[in-house]
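User: Quick sanity check before I run a bigger batch. Here is a single chain. Can you write out its predicted 3D structure?
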Amino acid sequence: MKNYFDSTWKYQKEYDVLYRIYVPATWPSLTLDWELLRAISRLTYEFYNNWNWNIDTKNPLDLYMYFVSLLAQYIDTNLVYRLSKLLRQPAVFNEQSNNIYNELMDAVIEKLLKINSNNK
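Assistant: Done. Predicted structure follows.
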């Protein structure tokens, strides 16, 4: 399965450049828009690296839910709802969960590319 975690997905080159430029090593990022990239990157890393074991599925009201609420302000709410639902269940690595993360990453990258092109 292709995904951002193993560097094989649709906007991989764009993601790598945007992340290197706009996401500092410590929180917060320069702007709220770029904090979106940190949010989806952290959630994606957490999923692919350890299948969300650091997330309390019964009460995920922590940094991860902050990231989900941030995404909900900018990205298609259906995608964010699917992610929120996924975070409340024990992680299962399958094509459906992989697709949710990849669709969200694509949506964030597309939004940031659009913002970036408008600011030129």
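The chain has a mean pLDDT of 79.

User: Great, the batch can go ahead then.
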